[in-house]
Amino acid sequence: MGLIATIALITLGISFMVFVTFFGRLPALRRTPIAWLHKLIWVYLPNGVYALDERLTGGRATNSCSRFANFIMYDQHPTILIFFILLLTISESLYLPTAWPLLSPTHKFFGTIAILCPYIFLYLSVTTDPGTITPHNHVSEMARYPYDFSLYHPGSTCRTCNLLKPARSKHCSVCKKCIAKMDHHCIFINNCVGAKNQHYFVLLLLTTSVLTLYGGILGLNILSTKILRRWPNWALLPWNANSGGEGMEIKQWLMIWAWGMQEAVSLGAVTLLALLTSPLVWGLLGYHVWLIYSGTTTNESMKWSDWQAEMDDGFAFKRGIDAGRRKKNLRIEPAWTRWPVEAEQILVRTESGRPPGRELDETGTEGGLVGEGEWEPVWRLRDVENLYDIGFWDNLVDVFWPGYMYRDPVSLEPRGRGRGRKGRRR
Ligand SMILES: [Zn+2]
Ligand SMILES: [Zn+2]
Question: Ligand 1 center to residue 133 CA distance, Å?
Fold first, then answer.
Protein backbone atom coordinates (compact mmCIF):
# COMPACT_ATOMS: atom_id res chain seq x y z
CA MET A 1 0.00 0.00 0.00
CA GLY A 2 2.95 2.32 0.68
CA LEU A 3 3.90 2.79 -2.98
CA ILE A 4 0.31 3.09 -4.16
CA ALA A 5 -0.54 5.62 -1.45
CA THR A 6 2.51 7.71 -2.35
CA ILE A 7 1.64 7.70 -6.07
CA ALA A 8 -1.97 8.61 -5.24
CA LEU A 9 -0.96 11.46 -2.95
CA ILE A 10 1.59 12.90 -5.38
CA THR A 11 -0.87 12.71 -8.30
CA LEU A 12 -3.64 14.24 -6.24
CA GLY A 13 -1.29 17.00 -5.09
CA ILE A 14 -0.09 17.82 -8.61
CA SER A 15 -3.62 17.72 -10.10
CA PHE A 16 -4.84 20.04 -7.38
CA MET A 17 -1.97 22.48 -7.92
CA VAL A 18 -2.61 22.49 -11.67
CA PHE A 19 -6.32 23.00 -11.02
CA VAL A 20 -5.67 25.96 -8.72
CA THR A 21 -3.12 27.42 -11.16
CA PHE A 22 -5.50 27.20 -14.12
CA PHE A 23 -8.71 28.22 -12.41
CA GLY A 24 -7.53 30.47 -9.58
CA ARG A 25 -7.34 33.59 -11.76
CA LEU A 26 -10.72 33.12 -13.40
CA PRO A 27 -13.12 36.00 -12.85
CA ALA A 28 -15.97 33.55 -12.15
CA LEU A 29 -14.09 32.12 -9.16
CA ARG A 30 -12.87 35.45 -7.83
CA ARG A 31 -14.50 35.26 -4.40
CA THR A 32 -13.99 31.54 -3.78
CA PRO A 33 -11.43 29.48 -1.85
CA ILE A 34 -9.86 28.53 -5.20
CA ALA A 35 -8.83 32.15 -5.83
CA TRP A 36 -7.61 32.42 -2.26
CA LEU A 37 -5.52 29.25 -2.64
CA HIS A 38 -4.14 30.61 -5.93
CA LYS A 39 -2.94 33.71 -4.04
CA LEU A 40 -1.49 31.56 -1.29
CA ILE A 41 0.41 29.29 -3.67
CA TRP A 42 1.52 31.89 -6.23
CA VAL A 43 1.90 35.07 -4.15
CA TYR A 44 2.22 34.55 -0.39
CA LEU A 45 4.19 31.28 -0.45
CA PRO A 46 6.80 32.50 -3.00
CA ASN A 47 7.13 35.78 -1.09
CA GLY A 48 7.68 33.86 2.14
CA VAL A 49 10.27 31.58 0.55
CA TYR A 50 11.95 34.61 -1.04
CA ALA A 51 12.18 36.42 2.30
CA LEU A 52 13.69 33.33 3.92
CA ASP A 53 16.15 32.87 1.05
CA GLU A 54 17.16 36.55 1.24
CA ARG A 55 18.33 35.87 4.78
CA LEU A 56 20.01 32.53 4.10
CA THR A 57 21.72 32.86 0.71
CA GLY A 58 21.12 36.49 -0.23
CA GLY A 59 18.38 35.50 -2.70
CA ARG A 60 20.47 33.29 -4.95
CA ALA A 61 18.33 30.15 -4.68
CA THR A 62 15.02 31.90 -5.47
CA ASN A 63 16.69 33.78 -8.31
CA SER A 64 17.62 30.62 -10.17
CA CYS A 65 14.21 29.10 -9.32
CA SER A 66 12.32 32.05 -10.78
CA ARG A 67 14.56 31.99 -13.85
CA PHE A 68 13.66 28.32 -14.29
CA ALA A 69 9.93 29.00 -13.77
CA ASN A 70 10.07 31.85 -16.29
CA PHE A 71 11.79 29.57 -18.78
CA ILE A 72 9.09 26.91 -18.35
CA MET A 73 6.16 29.35 -18.54
CA TYR A 74 7.28 32.10 -20.91
CA ASP A 75 9.76 30.63 -23.39
CA GLN A 76 8.90 28.68 -26.48
CA HIS A 77 10.19 25.13 -26.03
CA PRO A 78 8.51 21.73 -26.00
CA THR A 79 9.41 20.62 -22.42
CA ILE A 80 5.83 20.40 -21.15
CA LEU A 81 4.65 18.99 -24.50
CA ILE A 82 7.24 16.19 -24.25
CA PHE A 83 6.24 15.58 -20.62
CA PHE A 84 2.60 15.30 -21.71
CA ILE A 85 3.39 12.82 -24.52
CA LEU A 86 5.60 10.76 -22.18
CA LEU A 87 2.90 10.72 -19.50
CA LEU A 88 0.36 9.41 -22.04
CA THR A 89 2.68 6.88 -23.65
CA ILE A 90 4.27 5.50 -20.48
CA SER A 91 0.87 5.18 -18.78
CA GLU A 92 -0.55 3.32 -21.76
CA SER A 93 2.43 0.96 -22.01
CA LEU A 94 2.08 0.14 -18.28
CA TYR A 95 -1.68 -0.30 -18.50
CA LEU A 96 -2.25 -2.18 -21.74
CA PRO A 97 -0.21 -5.40 -21.24
CA THR A 98 -2.45 -6.36 -18.29
CA ALA A 99 -5.70 -4.87 -19.54
CA TRP A 100 -5.70 -5.71 -23.27
CA PRO A 101 -6.09 -9.54 -23.06
CA LEU A 102 -9.05 -9.10 -20.69
CA LEU A 103 -10.99 -6.70 -22.93
CA SER A 104 -13.99 -7.69 -25.03
CA PRO A 105 -13.81 -6.98 -28.80
CA THR A 106 -16.11 -3.96 -28.33
CA HIS A 107 -13.82 -2.43 -25.70
CA LYS A 108 -10.79 -3.26 -27.86
CA PHE A 109 -12.42 -1.33 -30.71
CA PHE A 110 -13.44 1.75 -28.66
CA GLY A 111 -10.24 1.54 -26.60
CA THR A 112 -8.12 1.83 -29.73
CA ILE A 113 -10.07 4.92 -30.85
CA ALA A 114 -9.84 6.42 -27.35
CA ILE A 115 -6.06 5.93 -27.30
CA LEU A 116 -5.42 7.27 -30.80
CA CYS A 117 -7.63 10.39 -30.72
CA PRO A 118 -5.65 12.44 -28.16
CA TYR A 119 -2.45 11.85 -30.15
CA ILE A 120 -4.15 12.93 -33.39
CA PHE A 121 -5.64 16.11 -31.93
CA LEU A 122 -2.45 16.87 -30.00
CA TYR A 123 -0.52 16.65 -33.28
CA LEU A 124 -3.07 18.89 -35.05
CA SER A 125 -3.16 21.47 -32.21
CA VAL A 126 0.64 21.65 -32.15
CA THR A 127 1.26 21.81 -35.89
CA THR A 128 -1.69 23.94 -37.05
CA ASP A 129 -0.96 27.65 -37.30
CA PRO A 130 -3.18 29.30 -34.63
CA GLY A 131 -3.86 32.27 -36.91
CA THR A 132 -0.63 34.25 -37.27
CA ILE A 133 -1.30 37.74 -38.61
CA THR A 134 1.14 38.74 -41.33
CA PRO A 135 1.27 41.69 -43.78
CA HIS A 136 0.18 39.15 -46.40
CA ASN A 137 -3.12 38.10 -44.72
CA HIS A 138 -3.72 41.33 -42.79
CA VAL A 139 -6.61 42.60 -44.95
CA SER A 140 -8.49 39.32 -44.67
CA GLU A 141 -7.80 39.06 -40.91
CA MET A 142 -9.11 42.62 -40.39
CA ALA A 143 -12.39 41.46 -41.97
CA ARG A 144 -12.75 38.42 -39.66
CA TYR A 145 -14.53 40.28 -36.82
CA PRO A 146 -15.83 43.85 -36.45
CA TYR A 147 -14.56 46.06 -33.61
CA ASP A 148 -16.98 45.92 -30.70
CA PHE A 149 -15.99 49.37 -29.32
CA SER A 150 -15.84 47.79 -25.85
CA LEU A 151 -12.91 45.38 -25.67
CA TYR A 152 -11.51 46.31 -29.07
CA HIS A 153 -11.39 49.83 -30.50
CA PRO A 154 -10.11 50.50 -34.00
CA GLY A 155 -6.78 52.21 -34.49
CA SER A 156 -4.43 50.39 -32.11
CA THR A 157 -1.21 49.06 -33.59
CA CYS A 158 0.99 46.18 -32.41
CA ARG A 159 4.31 47.81 -31.70
CA THR A 160 6.25 44.59 -32.37
CA CYS A 161 4.56 43.46 -35.60
CA ASN A 162 3.85 47.03 -36.73
CA LEU A 163 0.35 46.11 -37.92
CA LEU A 164 -3.08 47.41 -36.96
CA LYS A 165 -4.54 44.96 -34.44
CA PRO A 166 -7.61 43.22 -35.88
CA ALA A 167 -10.55 42.85 -33.45
CA ARG A 168 -10.10 39.87 -31.06
CA SER A 169 -6.40 39.47 -31.90
CA LYS A 170 -3.56 39.67 -29.41
CA HIS A 171 0.22 39.68 -29.61
CA CYS A 172 1.68 36.57 -27.97
CA SER A 173 4.89 37.39 -26.15
CA VAL A 174 5.99 33.73 -26.24
CA CYS A 175 5.37 33.09 -29.97
CA LYS A 176 6.30 36.73 -30.73
CA LYS A 177 3.47 37.11 -33.25
CA CYS A 178 -0.03 38.56 -33.37
CA ILE A 179 -2.64 35.80 -33.31
CA ALA A 180 -6.20 36.07 -34.68
CA LYS A 181 -8.92 35.43 -32.06
CA MET A 182 -6.22 34.74 -29.50
CA ASP A 183 -7.45 32.57 -26.63
CA HIS A 184 -4.27 31.87 -24.66
CA HIS A 185 -0.76 30.53 -25.10
CA CYS A 186 -0.80 26.90 -24.00
CA ILE A 187 2.43 25.37 -22.71
CA PHE A 188 1.03 21.84 -23.10
CA ILE A 189 0.87 22.23 -26.89
CA ASN A 190 3.78 24.73 -27.05
CA ASN A 191 1.56 26.88 -29.26
CA CYS A 192 -1.09 29.54 -29.05
CA VAL A 193 -4.76 28.61 -29.13
CA GLY A 194 -6.36 30.90 -31.72
CA ALA A 195 -8.87 31.18 -34.55
CA LYS A 196 -7.39 28.41 -36.67
CA ASN A 197 -6.54 25.69 -34.14
CA GLN A 198 -9.12 26.30 -31.40
CA HIS A 199 -11.33 23.45 -32.64
CA TYR A 200 -8.43 20.99 -32.48
CA PHE A 201 -7.64 22.17 -28.95
CA VAL A 202 -11.25 21.64 -27.81
CA LEU A 203 -11.22 18.17 -29.42
CA LEU A 204 -7.90 17.43 -27.67
CA LEU A 205 -9.53 18.30 -24.33
CA LEU A 206 -12.64 16.26 -25.17
CA THR A 207 -10.75 13.12 -26.26
CA THR A 208 -8.31 13.34 -23.33
CA SER A 209 -11.23 13.68 -20.88
CA VAL A 210 -12.91 10.63 -22.42
CA LEU A 211 -9.64 8.65 -22.38
CA THR A 212 -8.93 9.31 -18.69
CA LEU A 213 -12.48 8.49 -17.61
CA TYR A 214 -12.80 5.44 -19.87
CA GLY A 215 -9.38 4.08 -18.86
CA GLY A 216 -10.12 4.74 -15.19
CA ILE A 217 -13.49 2.97 -15.20
CA LEU A 218 -12.19 0.05 -17.27
CA GLY A 219 -9.22 -0.31 -14.91
CA LEU A 220 -11.51 -0.28 -11.86
CA ASN A 221 -13.64 -2.95 -13.50
CA ILE A 222 -10.67 -5.22 -14.20
CA LEU A 223 -9.28 -4.75 -10.68
CA SER A 224 -12.58 -5.45 -8.96
CA THR A 225 -13.16 -8.56 -11.10
CA LYS A 226 -9.73 -9.79 -10.00
CA ILE A 227 -10.48 -9.06 -6.35
CA LEU A 228 -13.98 -10.58 -6.41
CA ARG A 229 -12.63 -13.87 -7.69
CA ARG A 230 -10.60 -14.15 -4.50
CA TRP A 231 -12.89 -12.24 -2.06
CA PRO A 232 -16.51 -12.77 -3.19
CA ASN A 233 -17.96 -10.65 -0.35
CA TRP A 234 -15.99 -7.59 -1.32
CA ALA A 235 -17.56 -4.76 -3.36
CA LEU A 236 -16.29 -1.63 -5.10
CA LEU A 237 -18.03 0.61 -2.55
CA PRO A 238 -17.38 -0.19 1.13
CA TRP A 239 -21.08 0.01 2.14
CA ASN A 240 -22.02 -2.62 -0.46
CA ALA A 241 -19.37 -5.07 0.77
CA ASN A 242 -20.30 -7.55 3.45
CA SER A 243 -18.72 -10.43 5.27
CA GLY A 244 -21.28 -13.02 6.36
CA GLY A 245 -24.41 -10.85 6.51
CA GLU A 246 -22.72 -7.92 8.28
CA GLY A 247 -21.18 -4.86 6.67
CA MET A 248 -17.47 -5.12 5.93
CA GLU A 249 -15.20 -3.05 8.10
CA ILE A 250 -13.54 -0.20 6.24
CA LYS A 251 -10.14 -1.48 7.36
CA GLN A 252 -10.76 -4.90 5.86
CA TRP A 253 -12.16 -3.30 2.68
CA LEU A 254 -8.98 -1.24 2.29
CA MET A 255 -6.74 -4.26 2.96
CA ILE A 256 -8.45 -6.19 0.17
CA TRP A 257 -8.06 -3.16 -2.13
CA ALA A 258 -4.35 -3.09 -1.33
CA TRP A 259 -4.12 -6.79 -2.12
CA GLY A 260 -5.81 -6.19 -5.49
CA MET A 261 -3.51 -3.28 -6.30
CA GLN A 262 -0.46 -5.39 -5.48
CA GLU A 263 -1.73 -8.11 -7.82
CA ALA A 264 -1.59 -5.63 -10.71
CA VAL A 265 0.64 -2.75 -9.62
CA SER A 266 1.09 -0.97 -12.97
CA LEU A 267 -2.56 -1.31 -13.97
CA GLY A 268 -3.61 -0.11 -10.51
CA ALA A 269 -1.25 2.89 -10.53
CA VAL A 270 -2.35 4.04 -14.01
CA THR A 271 -6.03 3.54 -13.13
CA LEU A 272 -5.53 5.72 -10.08
CA LEU A 273 -3.67 8.34 -12.12
CA ALA A 274 -6.45 8.36 -14.74
CA LEU A 275 -9.22 8.72 -12.15
CA LEU A 276 -7.41 11.47 -10.27
CA THR A 277 -6.52 13.57 -13.33
CA SER A 278 -9.89 13.05 -15.04
CA PRO A 279 -11.77 15.79 -13.10
CA LEU A 280 -9.04 18.29 -14.03
CA VAL A 281 -9.31 17.56 -17.75
CA TRP A 282 -13.12 17.55 -17.63
CA GLY A 283 -12.92 20.86 -15.77
CA LEU A 284 -10.76 22.40 -18.51
CA LEU A 285 -13.12 21.05 -21.18
CA GLY A 286 -16.11 22.45 -19.28
CA TYR A 287 -14.39 25.85 -19.04
CA HIS A 288 -13.80 25.95 -22.80
CA VAL A 289 -17.38 24.88 -23.54
CA TRP A 290 -18.53 27.69 -21.23
CA LEU A 291 -16.31 30.15 -23.14
CA ILE A 292 -17.92 29.06 -26.43
CA TYR A 293 -21.38 29.26 -24.85
CA SER A 294 -20.64 32.85 -23.76
CA GLY A 295 -19.07 33.79 -27.10
CA THR A 296 -15.80 34.80 -25.50
CA THR A 297 -12.16 33.71 -25.13
CA THR A 298 -9.84 33.27 -22.16
CA ASN A 299 -8.19 36.56 -23.12
CA GLU A 300 -11.55 38.36 -23.38
CA SER A 301 -12.91 36.94 -20.13
CA MET A 302 -9.95 38.62 -18.39
CA LYS A 303 -10.76 41.88 -20.18
CA TRP A 304 -14.44 41.63 -19.17
CA SER A 305 -13.36 41.09 -15.60
CA ASP A 306 -11.30 44.31 -15.76
CA TRP A 307 -14.42 46.08 -17.07
CA GLN A 308 -16.39 44.70 -14.12
CA ALA A 309 -13.90 46.40 -11.81
CA GLU A 310 -14.31 49.71 -13.71
CA MET A 311 -18.08 49.36 -13.44
CA ASP A 312 -17.88 48.67 -9.71
CA ASP A 313 -15.95 51.93 -9.35
CA GLY A 314 -18.46 53.82 -11.52
CA PHE A 315 -15.93 54.70 -14.25
CA ALA A 316 -17.69 52.96 -17.17
CA PHE A 317 -20.06 54.71 -19.60
CA LYS A 318 -21.80 53.69 -22.78
CA ARG A 319 -23.83 55.20 -25.60
CA GLY A 320 -25.35 53.90 -28.81
CA ILE A 321 -23.78 53.50 -32.23
CA ASP A 322 -25.84 53.32 -35.39
CA ALA A 323 -25.03 49.79 -36.63
CA GLY A 324 -25.89 50.81 -40.20
CA ARG A 325 -23.56 53.82 -40.15
CA ARG A 326 -21.07 54.41 -42.91
CA LYS A 327 -17.63 53.82 -41.47
CA LYS A 328 -15.66 57.00 -41.92
CA ASN A 329 -12.11 56.04 -41.13
CA LEU A 330 -11.55 53.07 -43.43
CA ARG A 331 -7.83 53.35 -42.83
CA ILE A 332 -8.30 51.88 -39.35
CA GLU A 333 -11.66 50.10 -39.56
CA PRO A 334 -12.61 47.64 -42.31
CA ALA A 335 -15.63 48.70 -44.41
CA TRP A 336 -17.28 45.30 -43.86
CA THR A 337 -16.49 42.12 -41.96
CA ARG A 338 -17.60 38.53 -42.36
CA TRP A 339 -19.31 38.58 -38.95
CA PRO A 340 -23.12 38.77 -39.15
CA VAL A 341 -23.55 41.64 -36.66
CA GLU A 342 -22.05 45.10 -36.10
CA ALA A 343 -21.38 47.05 -32.90
CA GLU A 344 -24.36 48.97 -31.57
CA GLN A 345 -22.71 50.52 -28.54
CA ILE A 346 -19.48 52.05 -27.38
CA LEU A 347 -18.10 51.47 -23.90
CA VAL A 348 -15.50 53.85 -22.44
CA ARG A 349 -13.93 54.59 -19.09
CA THR A 350 -13.19 58.00 -17.67
CA GLU A 351 -10.65 58.93 -15.02
CA SER A 352 -13.02 61.25 -13.23
CA GLY A 353 -16.07 59.04 -12.84
CA ARG A 354 -18.08 61.69 -14.74
CA PRO A 355 -19.57 61.02 -18.20
CA PRO A 356 -17.09 61.68 -21.02
CA GLY A 357 -17.27 65.32 -22.03
CA ARG A 358 -16.00 67.20 -25.01
CA GLU A 359 -12.39 66.70 -23.92
CA LEU A 360 -12.63 62.95 -24.50
CA ASP A 361 -14.11 63.44 -27.93
CA GLU A 362 -11.25 65.75 -28.82
CA THR A 363 -8.30 64.05 -27.16
CA GLY A 364 -9.56 60.49 -26.72
CA THR A 365 -8.82 57.57 -28.98
CA GLU A 366 -10.24 57.58 -32.45
CA GLY A 367 -12.75 55.02 -31.23
CA GLY A 368 -13.95 57.55 -28.65
CA LEU A 369 -15.40 59.75 -31.37
CA VAL A 370 -18.15 57.43 -32.56
CA GLY A 371 -21.63 57.02 -31.15
CA GLU A 372 -24.40 59.44 -30.45
CA GLY A 373 -26.76 60.47 -27.69
CA GLU A 374 -26.21 60.79 -23.97
CA TRP A 375 -23.57 58.75 -22.14
CA GLU A 376 -25.05 56.58 -19.43
CA PRO A 377 -23.19 54.92 -16.58
CA VAL A 378 -22.90 51.12 -16.68
CA TRP A 379 -22.90 49.16 -13.43
CA ARG A 380 -23.19 45.57 -14.55
CA LEU A 381 -21.65 43.47 -17.36
CA ARG A 382 -25.16 42.21 -18.05
CA ASP A 383 -26.09 45.68 -19.36
CA VAL A 384 -23.41 45.52 -22.03
CA GLU A 385 -23.84 43.57 -25.24
CA ASN A 386 -21.20 41.09 -26.28
CA LEU A 387 -20.93 41.47 -30.04
CA TYR A 388 -19.13 38.14 -30.37
CA ASP A 389 -21.92 36.11 -28.74
CA ILE A 390 -24.49 35.12 -31.35
CA GLY A 391 -25.94 32.13 -29.47
CA PHE A 392 -24.38 28.84 -28.42
CA TRP A 393 -24.93 26.97 -31.67
CA ASP A 394 -23.61 29.76 -33.91
CA ASN A 395 -20.67 30.36 -31.57
CA LEU A 396 -19.87 26.66 -31.90
CA VAL A 397 -20.16 26.88 -35.69
CA ASP A 398 -17.71 29.83 -35.62
CA VAL A 399 -15.20 27.66 -33.72
CA PHE A 400 -15.53 24.53 -35.88
CA TRP A 401 -16.56 25.81 -39.31
CA PRO A 402 -15.50 29.47 -39.45
CA GLY A 403 -16.91 31.01 -42.60
CA TYR A 404 -20.13 28.97 -42.67
CA MET A 405 -22.27 31.65 -41.10
CA TYR A 406 -20.37 34.61 -42.39
CA ARG A 407 -21.95 37.29 -44.51
CA ASP A 408 -21.95 37.01 -48.23
CA PRO A 409 -19.39 39.60 -49.39
CA VAL A 410 -21.56 40.68 -52.32
CA SER A 411 -25.01 41.11 -50.80
CA LEU A 412 -23.72 41.60 -47.19
CA GLU A 413 -26.59 39.33 -46.08
CA PRO A 414 -25.79 36.79 -43.36
CA ARG A 415 -25.35 33.27 -44.72
CA GLY A 416 -26.22 30.00 -43.01
CA ARG A 417 -27.64 30.04 -39.51
CA GLY A 418 -26.26 33.36 -38.27
CA ARG A 419 -29.05 35.77 -39.07
CA GLY A 420 -27.80 38.60 -36.99
CA ARG A 421 -29.31 37.61 -33.66
CA LYS A 422 -27.65 39.71 -31.03
CA GLY A 423 -26.35 38.04 -27.94
CA ARG A 424 -26.13 39.47 -24.48
CA ARG A 425 -23.31 39.16 -22.03
CA ARG A 426 -23.88 36.25 -19.73
ZN1 LIG B 1 2.12 41.57 -32.71
ZN1 LIG C 1 1.83 31.88 -28.19
Answer: 8
